[in-house]
Structure to design on (206 residues):
């Protein structure tokens, strides 16, 4: 007598594959950023004066503005997901649009910050600022690329929401939200590391 086996083709987890892939991607990005931070801390601890001189030329007020912009964009992203799940398309568009504006505003502030550095002749490889500004441009530039990488799908989803059926995939927006919160979190670490946490003992040197 043969026994029929009922094989289930349901996934082992109810977590969407896209979200699992995003978690894996973010884990790899976290290791990448951790490498930056690890190297930065080691070199900072052995070059306090050099790093302090470089940090003194950074505009922490602009960086603080960008910090509030990204924190606000995390909130608007969460609200956009909430309203999409509630099928409130109008409010979804509002908060997704605000998130996109926040990302764009962050890049504008970063443009002015970079422009000021270039105008002062501060580049990677310039005299005693070499190591610090190499890290500064590498870490903030890499982060800015992640901001742009988030804006592209956000804008696509925003435009698709104006189609006849709207955007019927809240789980995809939630996955994008994971990415955006990660981008914001990385800035929360970059901001104090570059702008606030570098002691400068040059004035005490004899």
């Amino acid at each position: 007598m043969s026994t029929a086996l009922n094989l289930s083709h349901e996934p082992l987890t109810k977590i969407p594959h896209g979200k699992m892939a995003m978690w894996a991607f973010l884990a790899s990005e976290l290791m990448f950023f951790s490498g930056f931070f690890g190297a930065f801390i080691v070199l900072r601890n052995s070059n306090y004066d050099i790093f302090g001189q470089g940090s003194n030329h950074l505009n922490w007020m602009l960086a603080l503005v960008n910090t509030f912009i990204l924190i606000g964009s995390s909130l608007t992203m969460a609200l956009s997901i909430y309203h999409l799940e509630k099928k409130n398309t109008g409010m979804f568009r509002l908060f997704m649009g605000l998130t996109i504006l926040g990302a764009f505003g962050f890049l504008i502030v970063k443009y002015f910050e970079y422009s000021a550095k270039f105008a002062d002749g501060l580049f990677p490889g310039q005299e005693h600022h070499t190591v610090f500004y190499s890290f500064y441009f590498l870490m903030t530039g890499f982060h800015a690329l992640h901001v742009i990488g988030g804006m592209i799908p956000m804008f696509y989803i925003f435009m698709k929401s104006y189609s006849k059926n709207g955007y019927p995939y809240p789980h995809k927006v939630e996955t994008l939200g994971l990415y955006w919160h990660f981008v914001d979190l990385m800035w929360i670490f970059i901001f104090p590391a570059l702008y606030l946490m570098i002691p400068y003992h040059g004035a005490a040197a004899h």
Notes: Helices lie at 17-46, 48-55, 60-85, 89-119, 130-160, 170-196.
